Amino acid sequence: MTGPQPTVVHPHGALPAWLARGMADLFPAGAAVGAGEDPDQQLAARLAEAECSGRPLRIKLGIDPTGSDIHLGHSILFRKLRAFQDAGHTAVLIIGDFTARIGDPTGKSATRVQLSAAAVEANAETYLVQLGLGQDPSRALLDFDTPGRLEVRRNSEWLAGLDLPEVIELLGISTVGQMLAKEDFANRYGSGTPISLHEFLYPLLQGYDSVQVQADVELGGTDQKFNVAMGRDLQRHFGQRPQFGLLLPILPGLDGVQKMSKSLGNTVGLSEDPLSMYSKLEKVPDAVVNDYLTLLTDLELAALPENPRERQKAMALEITRARHGDAAADAAQVDAAKLVAGAQGAGAADAEVPEASLAAVNFPAKAFYLLSAVGICASSSEARRQIQGGGVKLDGQKLADPNQEFTGPAELAGKVLQLGKKTFRRLVVG
């Protein structure tokens, strides 16, 4: 355990500042009992109990690897998990290789497509690398190196072997009424949208994870309260001390309105290069800059410039530094300024810009095809829309015609292709 930490007077008790930062909800939130506090009702008391006994708390975070990329929105929970690690507690990261094949119904208006075991495992491996496996611990989201600080478990360890009597026991712990009280199920039931019976198993199975790892605290987004509370119910049923639920906000995306989501195209990926990361973050709307600062950095808001633009840049620089280091982040800030200032390509020539190879382009190539072939747009149709919308430049000159034709790589080599104000690629022959 670490030494004394700054505390925050909070409705849930005197919590360490690192824990209270950004917290949206904590349950249960029982009142003080007599002269002391109840460690089953107050997390502050459970922390004090752990300090006295020398037993680290077990902090659960479950992730279903249904995709291959982690973005900054996901990283909020991992940052809090790392904070628990740094305070001396044990992070229990559960790879939902079994539950991912069902799919979390939270936030879904229809039954999710079930993934194969091979696809889930491939995604899980990429997740662990993005979280810091084999990387510099100072820039890793999680501490993979310090003994006793991290357990990585796959819930197929205990879920794949459940027999029918055990499944029936789990089903008997909840009721149809409780399941339909979950907003997503209630909306679908009310609208006549089908709900498959296996979807009712998801909250029970992920709750059973808490039993198997004997969690003291489970982390989740504010949309996960039902699932986290189910873990408490199952722990009580199996005679364990119920976990606390600590919920964090959902991060707004780059548009500042909708949640950060790859399907909405408003994300910043953890694996993005420094220039792309910085360029995207310095354009985040003013209204959500403080949210990004609170949830994605340890900077004190009161110590930052009040000027919105300077605050924006400070946020972008700090987040980029955390992922790529000081030198790379500082260079990204300088290069972003050069590229933005270079309205006619001036200033872009000596900027360090991620490269995009022309090797896969079949020439002669039209502009819309070029953008998709080098990977700056996901498809030719998207490329057409971006060009027609005025969002594409080549060395500072706007591309106005999707059908503009380029005869060969020599015509493009060394030039900077720009999509919007956030994405830059220097075209190279190799």
Offer a concise description of the structure.
With 430 residues, the chain is an alpha/beta fold. Helix content is 40%, strand content 14%.
Structure, described:
The longest helix is centred in the middle third of the chain and has 17 residues, at 197-213. The chain has a six-stranded mixed β-sheet with strand order 3-8-7-4-5-6, sandwiched between helices. A five-stranded mixed β-sheet has the order 9-15-14-11-12. The chain starts with 6 loop residues before the first strand and ends with a strand. The protein contains 16 helices and 15 strands. Strand 14 (416-419) and strand 15 form a beta hairpin. Helices cover 40% and strands 14% of the residues. It has 430 residues and is of the alpha/beta class.
Give the topology:
Layout: E1 7-10, E2 13-16, H1 17-20, E3 25-27, H2 43-53, E4 58-63, H3 72-86, E5 90-95, H4 117-131, E6 150-154, H5 156-159, H6 164-171, H7 176-181, H8 183-191, H9 197-213, E7 217-221, H10 225-237, E8 244-248, H11 274-281, H12 286-296, H13 308-324, H14 326-341, E9 355-357, E10 365-366, H15 367-373, H16 380-388, E11 392-394, E12 397-398, E13 405-406, E14 416-419, E15 423-428
Parallel strand pairs: 4-5, 4-7, 5-6, 7-8, 9-15
Antiparallel strand pairs: 1-2, 3-8, 10-13, 11-12, 11-14, 14-15
